[in-house]
Design a protein that fits this description.
Number of helices: 3
Mean pLDDT: 83
Shape: extended
Low-confidence stretches: 1-5
Distance between the termini: 49 Å
Order of helices and strands: HHH
Largest sheet: none
Number of strands: 0
Radius of gyration: 18 Å
Strand content: under 5%
Helix content: 40-55%
Length: 97
C-alpha cells in the first residue's frame, strides 16, 4: 500500500509517489529481492533525511513560526532550502586546488 505524503493512509496526491519498505512477516524472513528493495528505499531515504537535517540548521525552520501572513512559512522554507543548496555548492573542502 503506498504511503501518503503525510504518512496518513488514504491521503494521496496524484503527482506524488511514496515507497514504503516491506515489513518482515511475524515469525518469517524477507526474501532477497525484498531485502534489496528495502536497501534501495533506505539509501534514498537517508539522502532525504540528511537534506532535511541540513535545512534545519537554520533555527527559523526548527522553531514554531508565529507569522500568520499567507505564504510566509513557504517563503521561509524556500529561502532556507536555497541557503542549504548554496552551502553545499560552495563547501571549501570541495574546491579544486
Amino acid at each position: 500500500m503506498p504511503l501518503s505524503r503525510y504518512g496518513i493512509p488514504g491521503f494521496l496526491l496524484s503527482d506524488v509517489t511514496m515507497f514504503q519498505p516491506k515489513k518482515k512477516p511475524r515469525g518469517g524472513e524477507l526474501t532477497p529481492p525484498e531485502k534489496a528493495t528495502n536497501r534501495r528505499i533506505s539509501s534514498i531515504r537517508i539522502r532525504i533525511e540528511h537534506a532535511i537535517g541540513g535545512v534545519k540548521r537554520y533555527r527559523i525552520v526548527k522553531d514554531k513560526i508565529r507569522l500568520l501572513k499567507d505564504g510566509i512559512r513557504d517563503a521561509v522554507m524556500e529561502t532556507c532550502s536555497g541557503l542549504h543548496n548554496f552551502r553545499l555548492q560552495y563547501r571549501p573542502w570541495h574546491y579544486a586546488s
